[in-house]
Amino acid sequence: MTVNWDAVAGADSYNVYRGADKRLDKNVTKPEYSTDGLTPDTKLTINVTSVNESGESAMSEIATKTDAEGGSE
């Protein structure tokens, strides 16, 4: 499954926080997050922050996407 968001001007990277506990799952340089190995009908809930030399932004609104087939898109 892949989740995309609008690029943020001036961002060097993005932190992706996954799940209700908002654990840091991945630091990415493109405005997209991909994961595989999900079982069918899995809900993926993420928040994203942008990161640059000044620090980390506030978290985005919660985004939830359901993978109807499992695996990756």
UniProtKB/TrEMBL annotation:
Which spans does this entry mark as compositional bias, Basic and acidic residues? 64-73
Any single Pfam family the record assigns to this protein = fn3
SUPFAM superfamilies in the cross-refs: Fibronectin type III (SSF49265)
Question: Which InterPro entries is this protein grouped with?
Answer: FN3_dom, FN3_sf, Ig-like_fold
Q: Where is this region: Disordered?
A: 52-73
Q: Where is the Fibronectin type-III domain?
A: 1-70
Annotated protein name in UniProt? Alpha-mannosidase
